[in-house]
Amino acid sequence: MTALKNDRFLRALAGEKVDMTPVWMMRQAGRYLPEYRATRKVAGDFMSLCRNTELACEVTMQPLRRYAMDAAILFSDILTIPDAMGQGLYFSEGEGPRFRKVVRTEKDVEQLPELNTAKDLGYVTDAVSAIRRELNGSVPLIGFSGSPWTLATYMIEGSGSKDFRNAKAFMFNQPEAMHLLLDKLARGVIDYLNAQIAAGAQAVQIFDTWGGVLSTHAYREFSLAYMQKIVAGLTKEADGRKVPVILFTKNGGLWLEDIAASGCDAVGLDWTIDIGTARARIGNKVALQGNMDPTILYSSPSSIRAEVDRILRDYGQGSGHVFNLGHGITPDVDPANVAVFVESVHELSQQYHQG
Ligand code: CP3
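Above: inputs. Below: predicted complex with coproporphyrinogen III.
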């Protein structure tokens, strides 16, 4: 494999010295880019775009052509796993993801097949290999998966949800069946992420988008425990380099110490927590990723720059920080504001990496 030309992202995750703070954005390939919308049109719909190796590779590259991002992220979705387990994923315009089948009983859980990545998710690993070839060592490639709890919420609700009443009722009423489901998903996620690593992913991120809707006790038992199991089961090294694991629980600010103790290499932060406080709490154990409020990208270039400056100042001197948004970029952001964001991170962070 070609040596990496820009390894700032991997160096920062390892706490090694960098010349400036690396930056990428969750959902960096997405609807705010006109070229993304055009490619999705060619594919027909979102899932067909994910399944088309050449077009998935194309949209992954699009943000990198416009901006000096320090990492690429595989273009796919977290819901490929339940889809491959036979739940029948579809996207209806303006309504978000939906499943044809839902999981509501212990029998439903028992009847769910084990995930077979090689057989059913070859389109994802094919995309990973194609993107690695296309990147040609320019920046590292991030693979990803949803957390078992987050995947389970979609499988039980059958769609997104405001209050997660079905998923939580399932957890409270049938905790054993819930554990069976989460365990099956954790095994699937390990297999899936290891296949992505084997195909060329150089870091992986676990998206626990809905862990933050749980009580502290339930978070530990039903979300974190399974992410911990996943971290323990992942391939540690590829191409002679460590494959870092980033764990992102949206609204996880209350539980930073627990998350940092999971064995992950970095903790993703949403925008609700002050990154200086997060560093004081867990910065000696793990790297931090985040955490600008994505809606700041709707504001002016000067306020975007000021917010980047504030976050860099809060984090302070030295490595161990990967700049990102606190959640995915939203569809109608002006692409010019993203350029301001990325350039501000690179320019304003240099003073924190001298000496
Ligand atoms: O970050 C990246 O650029 C990588 C690609 C990526 C997508 N989804 C592409 C996508 C990643 C990492 C995801 C993760 C994902 N998907 C999560 C976890 C992270 C988060 O944002 O909280 C979740 C909960 C999903 C499920 C999902 N997929 C939702 C809620 C939606 C949005 C539906 C809508 O209409 O708003 C999707 C679709 C999706 N996934 C899009 C993209 C670019 C938009 C689809 C389109 O083109 O219309």
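The first helix runs from residue 8 to 13.
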